[in-house]
Amino acid sequence: MVPLPRHSTMRLRLYHHPDGARVAYRELGAGPPLALLHSGLLSHKEWEPAVEGLADRFRVVLPDLPLHGDSEDRPRHPYTLDWFAEVLGGFTGEVLGPQPLLAGHDAGAEILMHAVLSGRMRPARLVLMPNRMHAAPAGAGARTAWQLTARAAAVPGLDRLLSHGARVVFTPERGLGLSARGNPAAADLFRHAFADVAGNSSLARSWAKCARSWPRGAQTGLLKQYPRLDMPVLLLWADQDRLHPLAAAEEALALLPRGQLRVLESAGFLMAYDDPVGLARELTAFCG
């Protein structure tokens, strides 16, 4: 696994939302609060390689999104994009305070955009890392197949079976393939993310709810919404991310009133594993 920063110990905390949902988060360092929201199916560990480069300047806050890591996974909640935004808005207000620094990747970025555009949070600065933005997602066929499979977990008897199947599909080797530089620690990231999935029928039913409601296809309505993101926005992309091509970020940049675009070279989907120094450098330059 990727070692934690040498100079301190990462602290585990819990945020309890009014509807009973809990969000587990880790924090390290002191200074302005900077929260990093991870991509779908992973956990706060997605950011560990870059934490040491940020903790000397920021209070780095790493939440596990609901349905991930140590956070809420009970099927009592709706797990819609609107619900995720509501919970993360409450988390931001209580844990980070007014006008925090917020960054998100993949699903984490989608939740951030929805939360900001719906008025649930108002960051001082916003960092959007590779996500589908307004474009149709790459590999749409595979994404649709995953959503249909996950939705099947709502059928009694299939929930436990499909929870075992997740570990067969999302292997450590798949994580390695998302690192453009073949960082072997990426395999451990996936191994950790799916360590407790097999046999967890409750989690499978919760994912079924999320799969039914998560927006599919191109979100072209965002093209009209980008001008409303009037705070400084950094689009921090990776040049070798096959899932999230650079073209969507370039199109969005033209519509952002205070937007910037920076690209990490020779980096893939797992940016923090391919170029932790570059990632920390760009975040510090923009947020610091």
Account of the 3D structure:
The structure is a single chain. The chain is α/β, with parallel strands linked by helices. The protein has helices spanning 48-55, 81-96, 107-117, 140-151, 158-169, 172-177, 185-193, 201-213, 222-225, 246-253, 271-274, 276-287; strands at 11-16, 22-28, 33-37, 59-63, 101-104, 125-128, 233-238, 259-264. It has an eight-stranded mixed β-sheet, with helices on both faces. Helix 3 (107-117) links the parallel strand 5 and strand 6 (125-128). The longest helix has 16 residues, at 81-96. The model is unreliable at 1-7 (pLDDT under 50).
Q: What's the arrangement of strands in the largest beta sheet?
A: 1-2-4-3-5-6-7-8
Ends: how far apart? 28 Å
Please give the radius of gyration in angstroms: 18 Å
- Strand portion, in percent? 5-15%
- Spell out the helices and strands N to C: EEEHEHEHEHHHHHHEHEHH
Shape descriptor: globular
Number of helices: 12
Structural class: alpha/beta
Low-confidence stretches: 1-7
Number of strands: 8
Largest sheet: 8 strands, mixed
Relative helix content? 25-40%
Layout of strands and helices, then pairs:
Elements: E1 11-16, E2 22-28, E3 33-37, H1 48-55, E4 59-63, H2 81-96, E5 101-104, H3 107-117, E6 125-128, H4 140-151, H5 158-169, H6 172-177, H7 185-193, H8 201-213, H9 222-225, E7 233-238, H10 246-253, E8 259-264, H11 271-274, H12 276-287
Parallel strand pairs: 3-4, 3-5, 5-6, 6-7, 7-8
Antiparallel strand pairs: 1-2, 2-4
